[in-house]
Design brief:
11 helices; 297 residues
Length: 297
């Protein structure tokens, strides 16, 4: 008994017709009939009988056909799994992320590579708006962004997978006189110099803060997270940032940055989520990677 014969008897049982089955299998009716006869001779049983209702399986034939169908299903699963593994191994995933996601992504890649060692990754740091633009232009395969909940409905061309909710806090260096505070007031913040990351949500937060409490002293803005870190470490300024960015800091900066809540200013929380185009060609490898990433949550 071989795979072709299993395919033949399953198809005949499905169609109840040698003619229909031979057409579906792209072989002649005589070749199909001869192959089934050879199998019946090998097994020593009659698999089919012909009647006015068509070509129907016998009682023993139904048992053989059922087992053959189960084997064919398992063979398809093996082929699909093997193909999936091959597709992932031969893939390159371009991941674009806001700064807070970099450490989490590196940790997930480390775990991922233990199973798919040949998969290639490219990590690029961008703002949320830049990531969405790069995804639309297919410069990136998948992106980690921050967005307000009411804006999620605007991402209609993307598959969106939220994984955490966060809020804005003040970030200070450990040398700052504010470092020992659990919360800080707007009055205290108006006395500080600020360095801000160039990100739409942070800009909107800053504008709302200024509208309510007055102008703040902005030393400079930057899309370079390390430049901001350096300034904070030297106690040159403070910053606004996502609480997640401080909770997921790498070992290099752990303890160097202190998150502090603002006591008299509430703002809508932000949603951290993964986004990718709905018709992306990298869905298989990206979903495998996201499953690995989500293990941390």
């Amino acid at each position: 008994m071989n795979i072709e014969q299993m395919q033949y008897i399953v198809e005949v049982a499905k169609t109840r017709s040698l003619i229909a089955a031979s057409n579906n299998l792209y072989i002649t009716q005589s070749a199909l009939s001869q192959s089934i006869s050879n199998l019946e001779e090998e097994l020593g049983i009659k698999i089919f009988t012909r009647s006015r209702h068509g070509t129907l399986p016998t009682a023993k034939g139904r048992f053989v056909i059922k087992k053959a169908d189960e084997i064919l299903i398992k063979l398809r699963e093996i082929k699909e799994t093997t193909q999936e593994f091959s597709d992932i191994l031969n893939s390159e995933l371009r991941i674009f992320s806001i700064p807070i996601g970099i450490t989490l992504i590196v940790n997930a890649i480390t775990r991922f590579k233990k199973e798919y060692s040949d998969t290639k990754f490219q990590i690029t740091q961008r703002s949320s708006q830049e990531i969405l633009q790069d995804l639309r232009k297919k410069k990136a395969d998948i992106g980690l962004i921050a967005i307000q909940k009411d804006q999620l409905t605007q991402l209609h061309e993307f598959t969106v997978e939220p994984f955490l909710e966060g809020k804005m806090v003040v970030g200070v260096g450990k040398k700052s006189p504010l470092a020992n505070k659990k919360s800080v007031s707007s009055k205290d913040l108006l006395k500080q110099s600020f360095i801000l990351y160039e990100e739409k949500y942070i800009q909107k937060f800053t504008e709302k803060f200024v509208d309510k409490f007055g102008e703040i002293n902005i030393m400079f803005t930057s899309n370079n997270a390390m430049a901001i870190l350096t300034a904070l470490q030297e106690n040159l300024a403070v910053t606004f940032g996502y609480d997640l960015s401080f909770h997921t800091a790498s070992e290099l900066i752990e303890g160097e940055l202190i998150p502090i809540e603002i006591s008299d200013f509430e703002y809508e929380p932000v949603i951290f989520c993964w986004v990718q185009l709905k018709n992306t060609e990298k869905r298989l490898v990206s979903q495998k990677f996201l499953k690995c990433f989500m293990n941390d949550f």
